[in-house]
Amino acid sequence: MSQSRTLRQKSQKYQENIEKRGVASPKKKEDGLNINPYVLGFIIFVVVGSTLLQILKGQ
Asked: Residues on the Extracellular side?
């Protein structure tokens, strides 16, 4: 019994996939900070605001 052409192609594709298992492609390292400017502004607002409140309460 001979295999049909499509069956051979599927088998070959499967074999190539087997050899690639477990190999992760290296990810590009992104430079810079990945944070929304609004979120960064909110964090700075909270930190600076809480610092000012603590200074004013201490006096």
From this structure: 56-59
d(CA 44, CA 49): 8
1 has pLDDT over 60: no
16 CB neighbour count, 10 Å cutoff: 9
Q: Residue 11 contacts by C-beta under 8 Å, 6 or more apart in sequence?
A: 3
Contact between residue 13 and residue 21 where contact means Cβ atoms under 8 Å apart: no
Tens of pLDDT along 27-47? 776 666 678 889 999 999 999
Give me the residue label for tokens 């190999």: 23
29/27 Cα distance (integer angstroms): 6
Count the residues in the chain.
59
